Amino acid sequence: TKTVREVLEEVVPKKQLQLKQLKTEHSQAVLGEVKVEHVVGGMRGLKSMLWEASVLDPLEGIRFHGLSIADCQNVLPAAPGGKEIIAESMLWLLLTGKIPTEAETRQLSRQLAEKGELPEYIEKLLDSLPPTLHPMTQLGMGVAALNHESKFQAAYERGIKKNEYWQYALEDSLDLLARLPALAARIYRNVYNPGQPLPKVNKDLDLVGNYANMLGFGDNHDLTEYLRLYIAIHGDHEGGNASAHTSHLVGSTLADPYLSYAAGLYALAGPLHGLANQEVLRWQMQMQKELGDNITHDSIRESLWKTLKSGQVVPGYGHGVLRNPDPRFMALQQFCDTRPSLLQDPIVQLVKKTYEVAPAVLKEHGKTKNPYPNVDAASGCVLYHYGLTQFKYYTVIFGVSRALGCLTQYVWSRALGLPIERPKSLSMDAIEKLIKE
Ligand code: FAM
Fold first, then answer.
1. pTM above threshold 0.80
2. Is the distance from the beta carbon of residue 150 to the nearest atom of ligand 1 less than 6 Å?
3. Where is the active site (predicted)?
4. Domain enclosing residue 170, as ranges
């Protein structure tokens, strides 16, 4: 059985060659135009980044090295006794482009579990924070402080060759991923269950199995399985989204993987991005409270209009790239459809009913280019059902997940020797001058 590093040692030279050929044979090929609308419109649709692990099609949704979510559900190994994709098999696919065997997946789980405990100074740092500090702020602080351990940074200071960067980047990325569950679970414990003992990392469990255990839900098989699916499918969503792009930009300065992912986490903490999952549940609970027993399609429609007329966005709907219902939303809905207890849950039912009317309302409203649900429309209600009711924590789970994609790209950016990012900006006067020329 090969390790993920051994597989990467075989794949890296091939990708390096591919990039070399692109640069020598096609560097002047045109991929699109830059219009004023791109410069003033958040660069939507502008093809301007290299990102290896996944590509997002507006209609079909995400593909990880060409595999759709349904493909991944068919081919990626699950946990022993489970059915859902686990973080390790998704990580293996993202990093190497290959489907891991059962044995490779178990070996990676073990490798991560063996280094899963937090250093004591991180525990002390987290324990000293006020429990009222948002869990995402705490997560970013913990991840940034872990760079005390960075092998990449130490090697850089020692002086290493550029073609060795990726190996230290991989070490740091695996160390960070290994510790994220203990870090995220300690924040949960400190904020919501102060004083409760935290279990140690179990070397025989997968990453998310351990995470669920440390959150205090280890005996809830369905929630553990849901978290596995959730964390696998939130792992990567190509490179242009705010968290991935932020972490990519910061990494391009050769800041280490910890600092670069901490930066990405703070982009994820914005309500238009990852924080939407917290907002969706808050908004749906408010709707439930207002509508009481009278929840019909008509009353939901009215409630949607109330949100829109008050100038707010409908959280969980719309997307910068997608123009169809998000297949990640569909996968989470499918999880609900196979479990009677979820189907009977009032908040799960409300999310489903909202989906039955919201696209038409958003179309009539006429602003959003995508009236369909994104992943966040569904992700929180299942957590709530299983007793993980603290919505302010939800984006932390997203943060544990998105490390899979951001750290994968960090490794690839170093393996490919990508340069520091430095796009050109223009003032409005400079734009007008260019238009007149
Ligand atoms: N409700 C109401 N209006 C919306 C809307 C929504 N859900 N989505 C977009 N719009 C508006 C948008 O605010 C903009 O209005 P203005 O012209 O007045 O500025 C207009 O429609 C055109 O926007 P767009 O081009 O369709 O969307 P963007 O690409 O600019 O933005 C999102 C994409 C995701 C930020 C936006 O759809 C949104 O704010 N959605 C709600 C928040 C949300 O669910 N975010 C999570 C995204 C998710 F996938 C993730 O990151 N996890």
1. yes
2. no
3. 273, 319, 376
4. 102-270+398-415
